[in-house]
Structure formats: C-alpha cells, structure tokens
Design a protein that fits this description.
Elements (H helix, E strand, L loop, with lengths): L2 H22 L19 H9 L28
Length: 80
C-alpha cells in the first residue's frame, strides 16, 4: 500500500468509528425554552416625542431628532 492508501484507510476507519459512536449515543434532551424578553426601553427621541406630542422630528445625519415644535420658524434645529 502506498502512503495515500494508508491515509485513506485511516480516515475511513475514523469516519466509521464516529458514525458508530453517534448511533450508540443516547438522545440529547431538548434545550429549555427561553422566556420572552420584555420590550426594549424607548429611546430618548421616542420619549421626547411622546412627552411633547408635536415635535419637528427632523433628523440630522447622526440620527438625532429635532426637539423644537412642529413647523418652527427658526432656521436651525435643536437636536438631542
């Protein structure tokens, strides 16, 4: 036998042993079901929107929201 034939025979023997071990092994118990997580807390923007009601809602590039009233006359926005 050549070296490659020996390697192939060893690999096939290991595979057969692993298949036999898997067939003889007892069934694994089912994992317990995780409890349902509570809803995530609201973000700062959402809390500000709920508290004030009518906010501008304009968002800047970093995702912050304007806290001025809806339809404000000021050219700039106040982000928080």
């Amino acid at each position: 036998m050549s070296k490659m034939d020996n390697l192939r025979a060893m690999r096939e023997a290991k595979y057969a042993a692993a298949q036999k071990r898997a067939a003889d092994a007892p069934a694994r118990p089912q994992a317990p079901v995780a409890p349902v997580a509570p809803p995530a807390p609201k973000r700062v923007e959402e809390r500000a929107a709920d508290a004030a009601g009518d906010l501008c809602g304009h968002r800047n590039m970093s995702g912050r929201t304007c806290t001025r009233e809806r339809g404000h006359a000021a050219k700039s926005h106040r982000y928080s």
